[in-house]
Every structure is written in structure tokens, then in C-alpha cells.
Design goal:
Length: 524
């Protein structure tokens, strides 16, 4: 009997050992399935300024963004790096300032300028995430080798086709068509994003899903039901439509993007805005709000799908408008400036376990999004990033991570932002000697803009390259009516902010990310 017991024990041990590989495999599979790092849903919205409910806009109808903000932190003082889609998205998605990506124009490619740069989705992919994009996440480029940055994605980029117009009325700035949401491309993008969430929920990996909506970018086209939400006659045209006192000419442009549409009457931009009549201004404002509500509805579809798929409780949602927008203020239309209306952006972050329904007045930048994602997902920062994590503010909205934000604007943008071919930085050092750039430091009260010629912060600073200054005091002058840079009463403010700005230059120059861009510009 004892002999039989020993044999049974031996057989049991052998059988158990035989099962070990399958047990190990099952354990490995379970570990994959229990990877509880949060998913990331990044929602990019093109040309949307903070004219939405979470920012107190009393006109906007944005129930989806309002609902998101009720579970999130809304950053009241967030700023983009450049008020133009290509460079600001390159900066946000690499965590590097534009002088470290070499992208200052619409069609620049950070991947051509420095192939070793690691993007946010790329870093997540290399850290075990499934990554996929749909719509306009990066700015579209013609070169297929760098378009949508293929190395960023573990899954094929989701293509969406659709015309900017539903009617055949030529190249008009505004269009109201009685069509369903997918009559325009953003409706299709939302549908594809919802499908992507349905697939990603079954993955063994956490995911990064980038969703880029194209409205309210011109042309301002949206289904009729969104136009019907607003009364055109009540649209408030900008109160201040002139240049500031003691103006710096480099700060202004001729609103060329808007002028390219057939239904816009000729006007002289900031020189004489009376040529853009009130009726046209109200039509444009009505269209812009309609597009915002249309986009909000598409955001709502994606957020509803996140909830329905059971993913909402473990997904970080980051929603942003890629830069601000001029709608008649300063006599300007579109973007392309260092002014408040062009650089201040909506940024809403909803993260599991963080404060809900809060607002932060801390000054933050798009550069801060990448390190925030790294901290929330336990992803090592792949290179020296130029921003700071927002996690302390997500935990306590009264926290502060920095004293100021930096935006910049290249005057070459007004000439190059409409070009149809990719802009290659290689060998352009000589050309850049004539480029005029305004570096804007924005703290909680002031904006100092230092205009330079032939200077980028990957170079050592040379004060002889400074050609003009602007200073605005937002406590006293929120519409930027008065440039007080040369007012003796503000001399100490100018001195203090210049010191901080020059410290920023020195820090940027010392970064290891400066040298590769300098070499590319030199043609090496």
C-alpha cells in the first residue's frame, strides 16, 4: 500500500512538472491582461481657441466638452509653442521646443531634421503600448516616408477620406449644408475612432489612441443643425480691431489665409479693417461657433464609446486645441502671431485617480503634455524633454510647476505656411540669418515679446540681433491695446522679464537637442 502511495506521489510530481510550461504560459498571459497602466486618448482639435463651455464662454454649445471638464482639470492659462498647426503639433508630440525640432513652418519635418527624436506615441509603443492614430494628429506632409510619422504607431494609421465641402459652391469660407455628421470628414473620423476603441478594448496591451478633428479650421463648414444652435445677429464682433499703441510691425500680418476664399470681400487686414464689413464678420463668427459645436458632438461620440466599452475608468483623456485664433481682434484673422488670442489654448486633462471638475490658473505649455504622459504611464522620458509634468497640478490645481510659458513666431510663416511641398531645414542656415522671430514670455500678468533677426535658441544668444520689444499688462489691458515696452513706468518689468527670457535661451542652447538641429541647418 505504501509502495503504491509513493508511486502515485511520484506520478503526481511528474504530471505537475509536465504542466509547468502551460502554467507558466497562463501566468504570463494573465500578467499581460492585468497590465493596469492607463490608456491614453489624445484628442487634437484644429484651430479651436478656448471659446467653449469649460472656459466660461456663454455662447458656445459644447455639452461633450462640458461633461469631460466635469471629470477633469481645465487649464485656464495654457499656451502653445507656435500659433501654427505644423510646428505646434511637432513640438507637443516630441516634448521639444520648436528650436529643438527645427520646425517653424507649416510643412517642416522634425523627422528629417533629427531622425533620432522619439515621439510620445513612439515612446509608449516601445514601452509596451498599442499605438494608433486617426484623423489629423501630426500635421499632414507630402513626403510619405514621414507623413503621420509611421514609426510612432504599432498599428497601421487609420485613413479617413472626405471632402471639406458637402456642396459644390466653389472655395468658400463658410458652408451650411443639411447633411448628417458624416457628410463632413470629422464625422467619419469620429466613426473610425469609435471602431478603433472597439478593437483596442480586446488588446492585451494598454493603448494610445490619437484622434485629430479638423474643425473649426477653415473652411468653416458644418451640418445645418449646428448652425441652428446660434443666432447670427447676436454674434459679438471684436471690440478692439486696431493695432496697439507703439506697434511693432512684425507682430501683425495680412490675414492671407482668410483672403483666399471666394466669399470674402477684399480688406486690408490690420491697416483698415472697415473693409471687412460687420455682416461678414458675424457670418464668420456664426460659422466658427457652428464648427465648434459640430466638433464637440464628434468628441462626444468618442467619449461615449470609451464609456460603453468599459474603458473610461482606466483611460487618461487629453483634449486640446492646437493653437488660438484671431477672429477680428487687432484687425487680424486666423492664427500666426504671438498675441494672446493666437497663443492661449484649451487644455483639459482627465486622469484616473486625480481631481475632478477643477480649474487651474497655473501657467502651463503644450511642452508639458509629454512628460505628464510619461509620469502617468511609468514610461521613461526618451530624451531631454523641454516641459514639466502636470501631475502635481492634476493632484492639486493650486500647485504651480513653472513661472511662465514661451511661445514663438517666425515671420517666415506668413510666406511659407501655405506652401504645398515639405520644408527641409537642411542647409538653410544662411536663409535663417534673415528670419525674424518673436520670442514671447507669458507669465501670470505680462507678456514680453523680444523680436530677433537671425537668432534661434539652438544658437548662443547675441543681443545685437534684437530688433524690437512688446510688453502687455493683462491686469490693466486684456485686449493688448497698449504696447508699454518703452514706457519708463515698466522699465523694471522689462528688465526682469528679459532676464528670464535670456535664461530660457541659455537653457535651450545647453540642451543636447540643440546640436542636431544646428548641424542640419548647416547642411552637415
Amino acid at each position: 500500500m505504501n509502495h503504491m502511495k509513493n508511486i502515485n506521489r511520484l506520478l503526481y510530481g511528474i504530471n505537475t512538472m509536465a504542466l509547468l510550461p502551460s502554467i507558466a504560459f497562463a501566468a504570463s498571459t494573465d500578467m499581460k491582461k492585468t497590465d493596469n497602466r492607463p490608456n491614453i486618448l489624445l484628442i487634437a482639435i484644429d484651430d479651436m481657441k478656448p471659446w467653449i463651455g469649460p472656459y466660461g464662454d456663454s455662447i458656445a454649445r459644447t455639452p461633450a466638452m462640458d461633461a469631460l471638464a466635469s471629470r477633469a482639470t481645465t487649464f485656464n492659462n495654457a499656451y502653445c509653442q507656435v500659433s501654427l498647426s505644423g510646428p505646434t503639433r511637432s513640438s507637443l508630440l516630441t516634448g521639444l521646443n520648436p528650436d529643438h525640432t527645427g520646425v517653424w513652418w507649416l510643412m517642416g519635418s522634425f523627422r528629417k531634421n533629427n531622425p533620432d527624436i522619439v515621439t510620445m506615441p513612439q515612446a509608449l509603443k516601445e514601452n509596451g503600448y498599442e499605438t494608433v492614430g486617426v484623423g489629423k494628429v501630426y500635421h499632414p506632409l507630402k513626403d510619405k516616408t514621414v507623413k503621420d510619422d509611421p514609426i510612432s504607431w504599432s498599428l497601421p494609421y487609420i485613413k479617413t477620406a472626405g471632402s471639406p465641402y458637402a456642396l459644390a459652391n466653389g472655395r468658400v469660407a463658410t458652408e451650411c449644408a443639411d447633411v448628417p455628421d458624416n457628410g463632413y470628414v470629422d464625422g467619419i473620423i469620429a466613426e473610425e475612432a469609435v471602431k478603433a476603441l472597439g478593437r483596442l478594448k480586446d488588446s492585451d496591451k494598454p493603448f494610445f489612441l490619437g484622434v485629430g478633428f479638423k474643425k473649426p479650421h477653415l473652411p468653416f463648414c458644418a451640418p445645418k443643425k449646428y448652425w441652428d444652435m446660434y443666432d447670427r445677429e447676436s454674434m459679438p464682433v471684436a471690440e478692439f480691431q486696431d493695432m496697439s499703441s507703439d506697434p511693432v510691425e512684425y507682430a501683425y500680418h495680412n490675414s492671407l489665409e482668410l483672403k483666399g476664399y471666394s466669399d470674402i470681400p477684399p480688406f486690408e487686414s490690420f491697416i483698415d479693417t472697415r473693409h471687412l464689413d460687420t455682416y461678414t464678420q458675424k457670418r464668420l463668427l456664426h460659422a466658427y461657433y457652428a464648427c465648434i459645436s459640430y466638433t464637440d458632438a464628434q468628441v462626444g461620440k468618442v467619449l461615449d464609446a470609451l464609456e460603453e466599452e468599459g474603458l473610461a475608468d482606466n483611460t487618461v483623456v487629453i483634449l486640446f486645441g492646437d493653437h488660438g485664433y484671431h477672429l477680428g481682434d487687432h484687425g487680424l484673422w486666423n492664427k500666426l502671431s504671438d498675441f494672446e488670442q493666437s497663443t492661449r489654448v484649451p487644455l483639459i486633462v482627465c486622469a484616473p485617480g486625480m481631481k475632478e471638475g477643477t480649474k487651474s490658473n497655473s501657467v502651463v505649455e503644450f511642452l508639458d503634455i509629454f512628460p505628464t504622459v510619461c509620469e502617468l504611464t511609468k514610461t521613461p522620458e526618451p530624451q531631454q524633454l523641454d516641459g514639466k509634468s502636470l501631475v502635481p497640478i492634476l493632484k492639486n490645481p493650486k500647485s504651480k510647476t513653472k513661472d511662465y510659458a514661451i511661445s514663438q513666431f517666425s515671420r517666415s510663416c506668413t510666406e511659407n505656411y501655405t506652401i504645398s511641398t515639405d520644408t527641409d531645414l537642411k542647409g538653410k542656415a544662411k536663409e535663417l540669418e534673415n528670419d525674424i522671430t518673436g520670442y514671447a514670455l507669458r507669465d501670470s500678468r505680462y507678456r514680453l515679446v523680444e523680436w530677433t533677426k537671425g537668432f534661434k535658441t539652438y544658437m548662443p544668444f547675441d543681443e545685437s540681433k534684437v530688433i524690437a520689444y512688446e510688453l502687455y499688462d493683462y491686469d490693466k489691458d486684456p485686449e493688448e491695446r497698449h504696447n508699454v515696452a518703452n514706457d519708463p513706468a515698466y522699465a523694471s518689468v522689462v528688465k526682469s522679464l528679459k532676464k528670464k527670457l535670456h535664461q530660457h535661451y541659455a537653457k535651450s542652447y545647453a540642451s543636447p537637442m540643440s546640436a542636431p538641429i544646428a548641424r542640419t541647418a548647416a547642411g552637415d
